[in-house]
Amino acid sequence: MTDTGKRQFRLRSQDWFDNLDHADMAALYLERFTNYGLTLEELREGRPIIGISQSGSDLAPCNRIHVDLVQRVKDGVRDAGGIPIEFPMHPIFENCRRPTAALDRNLAYLGLVEILHGYPLDGVVLTTGCDKTTPAALMAAATTNLPAIILSGGPMLDGWSNGERVGSGTVLWRVRKEYAAGKITRETLIERVAASTPSAGHCNPMGTALTMNSLAEALGMSLTGSATIPAPYKERPQCAYQTGKRAVGLVEEKLKPLDVMTRAAFLNAIRVNAAIGGSPNAYPHLMAIARHAGVELTAADWNEFGYHIPLLANVQPAGEYLGEHFHRAGGIPAIMTELAGAGQLDEAAMTVTGKPLGETLKNLRRADRKVIYAYDTPVRQKAGFKVLTGNLFDSAIMKTSAISDHFRKTYLSDPGKTDVFEARAVVFDGSEDYRSRINDPALNIDERCILVMRGAGPVAWPGSAEVVNMQPPDALIKNGVDSLPTLGDGRQSGTSGSPSILNASPEAAEGGGLAWLKDGDVIRIDLNTGHCDALVDEEEIARRKQDLAYAVRGSETPWQAMYRASVTQLGDGAVIKGADEFRNVTARLPRHNH
User: Fold this and answer.
1) How many Å apart are CA 171 and CA 205, to the nearest integer?
2) Which of 20, 362, 385, 459 has the most CB atoms around its CB within 10 Å?
3) In this structure, are residues 439 and 473 in contact, taking their beta carbons and an 8 Å threshold?
């Protein structure tokens, strides 16, 4: 329990509840908190006030476990001498939010910043789960620099269908190809997808949800070993209790997010992302968090510190198992231990435990080698993102851990052209265009084509959509060709196993090269040099640019218009322009309100 008598500083909340200069203001701030049962004594005796950001609701099924889980957080806060105050976070549900949940990350971030800045909170437990709740929370933690700790809700239990282990999300990309080939009915498709979600929790493959919560742990912002605990396991509420207790400790120790989220921590996260076969959405999210933390992180860092890292996690979509087995095999601590043993982890990086990362990894049990491979004998070599550049964009990423043996043999193994391929572009303007024309025989799509999606970036969509992972025409699928190279200025679900070229920045709507690309242009991708170029001469490119008039769909809500006017490109994290200039905002107390 906290000992307020020994504390050598005044808490932030005391300026609200125990203001020595303005008794009238203290009275105003105190009185409404008593109307649901808190006492004046509790609020005035100098206990840390710990906010609990409630991200769970009926509208956010992946985070809904937090509706009950926060009680254990509150128990932990109370037992450590603090006072818990729960408040709502803007809901984010990746699967269901239209036109895309990417709109909500920045909106949820703004809401969190205003709450953490403007209310009498000394620290906060940020509950996370679904994809964008985690980066939104970490972005807000970086901006406010209020003592903060992440508590994820954990993945679902393993899903099974027809005796086969199936991951939520991942199964959809598989069965929709079977449906396109005429092998299953519409009802079977729906039933098999539903079978992949057997319990409470977020996605159970290494999609964006599990990736980002794993990277929160790698950054040092959650308790070591907490990210992968399945939602239904008893260890999850136990972890919630310990997280609540630790939140009070962070306040007493004055340990803040910017003490933890250093450049060393971000480089650790890049390495861990490669080792787990993390979602391609990790790139814009980590870039966004780093910008708000004031940490310089560049595209070159991903090539230098991540690309050479081998894939160690045998987890779908790049492997065989799911989150439950990954946790039982040792989870993120086992991955980080392998990296540390190979000299690929900065063990001195601080964590919210109050100990350096290396200290938290001591005395861990040996990993299950069916699920977590040794660094020297990995699932595959060089599994990090490859950041590309060329005349079509300044930057884009390719998730190399998803390159299958079939894809490598078909596209990356031509004699004398290892890791180089050329393909004829078939260009689509948005997912509606793709869906209406993909089966048009006149497009003459064959195995040497690359499907290009434009109009899917932060400005054009708006928000950037997960529509780049396009499947081939039904006719090709029926003939056994179930994947083609794809490229786009949008994103791709982390549960997809497609090695697409994603996040092309700038997007077509902002003058990127995809705007002038035409059907039939040949695109050359060279993973050795990191280049991706349309083989079109400079004079022709210049002529096309002169005639260019790229139109986008109009905004449908006020926030969409505001988002479009303020957002940066995916290569920069798709953050709000100028928001990264605000940092450590809780260091200065806000003005009184009356």
Assistant:
1) 10
2) 385
3) yes
Determine whether 58 is exposed, middle or buried from the number of CB atoms within 10 Å of its CB (0-12, 13-18, 19+): exposed
Question: Which H/E stretch holds residue 436?
Answer: helix 431-437
- Provide the token pair at 314: 């045998």
Q: Are 368 and 329 in contact (CB under 8 A)?
A: yes
What's 315's DSSP letter?
B
H-helix segments, 294-330: 299-305, 323-328
Contact of 489 with 507, CB cutoff 8 Å: yes
Q: Could you tell me the mean pLDDT of each successive run of 10 residues in the chain, 594 residues long?
A: 77 96 94 95 96 97 97 98 98 93 97 98 98 98 98 95 84 85 91 90 95 98 98 98 98 98 98 97 97 97 97 95 96 97 98 97 88 97 96 95 86 90 96 96 95 97 94 92 92 82 97 97 96 97 91 94 98 97 96 94
Q: What is the tens place of the pLDDT at every residue in 568-594?
A: 999 999 999 999 999 999 999 999 999
3-state secondary structure of 312: coil
Q: What is the pLDDT of residue 402?
A: 83
**Spatial contact of 109 and 128, defined as CB atoms under 8 Å apart:** no
Alpha-carbon distance values, 299 to 283, 394, 415 (Å): 9, 10, 30
Q: Tell me how far the alpha carbon of residue 356 is from its chain's centroid.
A: 24
Q: How far apart are CA 129 and CA 135, in angstroms?
A: 10
Lookup result for tokens 């809780």: 586
Q: State the burial class of residue 460 (Cβ atoms within 10 Å of its Cβ: 0-12, 13-18, 19+).
A: buried
Structure confidence at residue 156 (pLDDT): 96
- Output the pLDDT for position 567: 98
Angle CA(569)–CA(486)–CA(448) in degrees, nearest 5? 145
CB of 145 closer than 8 Å to CB of 584: yes
| pLDDT at residue 161, as a whole number | 80
Q: Which residues contact 203 (CB under 8 A, 6 or more apart)?
A: 62, 155, 156, 167, 168, 169, 209, 210, 323, 494, 495
Bridge partners of 388, per DSSP, are 396
Neighbours of 83 (CB within 10 A): 20
Three-state DSSP class for residue 97: coil
What count of Cα atoms within 13 Å lies in the side-chain half-sphere of residue 569?
Answer: 18
According to the model, what pLDDT value does residue 1 have? 57
CA distance readout (Å), 422 to 347, 450, 528: 42, 9, 14
Phi (first) and psi of residue 157, to 5 degrees: -65, 165
Run of H or E including 427: strand 420-429
- Give the full edge-to-edge strand order of the sheet including 123-128: 83-88, 49-54, 123-128, 148-152
pLDDT at 177: 84
- For residue 360, the SS3 value is helix
For residue 501, what are the β-bridge partners? 398, 487
Strands 148-152 and 123-128: parallel
Helix (H, G, I), strand (E, B) or coil at 28: helix
Q: Count other Cβ atoms within 10 Å, centred on residue 355.
A: 14
pTM beyond 0.90: the answer is yes
Would you say 223 and 246 are in contact if contact means Cβ atoms under 8 Å apart? yes
Quote the CA–CA distance of 211 and 216 in Å, as a whole number.
9
